[in-house]
Amino acid sequence: MNQPDTPLLEVSDMIVGYGRIRALHGISLQVRRGELVTLLGANGAGKSTTMRALSGLLPLGGGRIVFDGNDISHVKAHDRVNLGMVQVPEGRGVFPGMTVQENLDMGCYARTFASKGEYAERLDWVFELFPRLAERRSQVGGTMSGGEQQMLAIGRALMARPRLLMMDEPSMGLAPMVIAQIFRIIAEINAQGTTILLVEQNAQQALRRTDRAYILETGEITRTGTGAELLADPAIKHAYLGVG
């Protein structure tokens, strides 16, 4: 894991609501270049709302989002992708009728490559991370297992050459062995230089690998610290690990 100093993403006092119901109550967080940062919380805490707001899919009711020094609070979702903010959505969002190769190519839709060589190099990297995708590149996405679909969703996002990879609940619905494999790959992607914001409720796996984490409860940040600090915190152990 990397420990750089410059914030790539800076969120200040972000407020988001659904109609008259406020879901986020002025949260603030930072992701520095090269970091793996986790936003941890239970169901209904506001994690996916945070991710949708960062991606430009929900409007802000207040506060601001700064990416690479530029205020993008009102920038459209597809323009954020062009800037390098790429999301792996909750539920994976694989195109079920498309092959693995076609799904991966959809990741290039908004972020075109300068040459065929650059495209091939990126594709080779994805297949190196996920050999199963290389083996099944002609298989239709809808016929793959949940773990394979999660690999495909991550691979598709990587084909967009993210500067910030935002992952929403990548462990959801997966078997424990598959979860461990997915988290090892996430750590490897980060180790190779990709900045990651991870939204999770699997505290054990996430905190073991994260540089820093924020605890989100009912739309508010209630605690922050390194992964090691939070893993050792008795309150976190009780709330998220079932210990104590």
**Spans with pLDDT under 50 lasting ≥5 residues?**
none
Kindly report the CATH topology of the largest domain. Answer: Rossmann fold
Strand order of the largest sheet: 6-7-8-3-9-10
What is the CATH top level name of the largest domain? Alpha Beta
Q: Tell me the structural class.
A: alpha/beta
SSE arrangement, N to C = EEEHEEHEHHHHEHEHEEHH
Our estimate of the beta-strand percent is: 25-35%
Shape: globular
Describe the sheet with the most strands: 6 strands, mixed
Spatial gap, N to C terminus? 29 Å
Number of separate helices? 10
How many domains would you count in the coordinates? 2
Give a structural overview.
The chain has helices at residues 47-55, 77-83, 100-106, 116-129, 131-135, 146-159, 176-191, 203-209, 227-231, 234-241; strands spanning 7-18, 21-32, 36-40, 62-67, 70-71, 85-88, 164-168, 195-200, 212-217, 220-226. With 244 residues, it is an alpha/beta fold. It folds into two domains: 1-84 and 162-244, P-loop containing nucleotide triphosphate hydrolases (Rossmann fold, 3-Layer(aba) Sandwich); 95-161, no CATH class. The strands form two sheets. It has a six-stranded mixed sheet, sandwiched between helices. Strands 2-1-4-5 form a four-stranded antiparallel sheet, with helices on one face. A hairpin with a 2-residue loop joins strand 4 and strand 5 (70-71). The radius of gyration is 17 Å and the shape is globular. 41% of the residues are buried.
Brief summary of the model shown:
The chain has helices at about 45-55, 75-85, 100-105, 115-130, 130-135, 145-160, 175-190, 205-210, 225-230, 235-240, and strands spanning about 5-20, 20-30, 35-40, 60-65, 70, 85-90, 165-170, 195-200, 210-215, 220-225. By secondary structure, it is α/β, with parallel strands linked by helices.
